[in-house]
User: Which sequence fits this backbone?
C-alpha cells in the first residue's frame, strides 16, 4: 500500500513537472509576449525584470527534479555520489538563481501589496531554508540538514501548488483574477510549509 502511494505521488509530481516544462518552453526562444508575460507588459521593458523572470522560469527546470531526488532513500544509499551532485544542483540553482530572482519578481507581483509581501517572503524563506541545509550538512548534522531540505523543497513545490490552487479556485468559485492572485500568493506556499512541519514532527516522534 505504501509503495502504491509513493508511485502515485511520483506520477503526480512527474505530470506537474511536465506541465511546468511545457509552460517554460513557451518562452524559448526569448519571448516576452506569451503566457504570463502578456499581463506583465508594463514591466517587460525593465531589463532587470526580464532578466529575473527568465532566470527564474528556466531554473525551475532544474530545481524541481533535482530537489525531488534528495528524498529517495534508495538513491542516497545506493548512489551517494548522485545524491550529492543533485543536491548541489538544487542548492546552487536555488541560492544563485531561483530564490533571488523570485524576490525580484515578487516586487512586481499581481494583486497588490499583499501578493508582493507573500512572494517576497516566500523567496526569503526559501533562500534561508536552503542556506541552512548547506550549513547543517557542512557541520555533518544530518538530521538538521534533512529538516531544512524538507522545508526548502516544500517551498520549491509552490511552483506547482500555486498553479494547482489557482485552477481549483477558478473552477469552484469563479473569482476575479486579481482576487485569485491574492489568495494563491499565500495559499500556494503557506500550506506547503505547514505540511512540511507536520512531516518533520511525525518523523521525530
Assistant:
Amino acid at each position: 500500500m505504501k509503495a502504491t502511494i509513493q508511485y502515485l505521488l511520483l506520477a503526480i509530481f512527474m505530470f506537474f513537472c511536465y506541465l511546468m516544462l511545457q509552460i517554460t518552453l513557451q518562452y524559448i526562444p526569448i519571448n516576452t509576449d506569451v503566457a504570463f508575460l502578456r499581463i506583465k507588459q508594463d514591466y517587460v521593458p525593465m531589463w532587470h525584470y526580464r532578466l529575473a523572470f527568465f532566470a527564474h522560469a528556466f531554473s525551475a527546470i532544474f530545481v524541481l527534479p533535482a530537489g525531488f531526488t534528495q528524498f529517495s532513500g534508495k538513491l542516497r544509499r545506493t548512489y551517494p555520489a548522485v545524491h550529492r551532485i543533485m543536491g548541489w544542483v538544487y542548492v546552487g540553482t536555488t541560492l544563485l538563481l531561483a530564490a533571488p530572482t523570485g524576490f525580484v519578481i515578487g516586487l512586481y507581483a499581481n494583486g497588490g501589496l499583499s501578493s508582493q509581501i507573500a512572494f517576497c517572503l516566500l523567496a526569503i524563506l526559501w533562500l534561508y531554508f536552503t542556506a541552512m541545509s548547506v550549513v547543517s550538512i557542512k557541520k555533518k548534522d544530518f538530521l538538521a540538514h534533512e529538516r531544512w531540505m524538507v522545508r526548502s523543497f516544500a517551498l520549491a513545490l509552490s511552483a506547482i501548488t500555486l498553479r494547482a490552487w489557482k485552477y481549483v479556485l477558478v473552477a469552484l468559485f469563479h473569482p476575479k483574477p486579481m482576487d485569485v492572485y491574492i489568495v494563491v500568493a499565500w495559499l500556494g506556499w503557506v500550506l506547503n510549509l505547514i505540511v512540511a512541519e507536520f512531516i518533520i514532527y511525525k518523523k521525530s516522534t
In short: The mean pLDDT is 89.
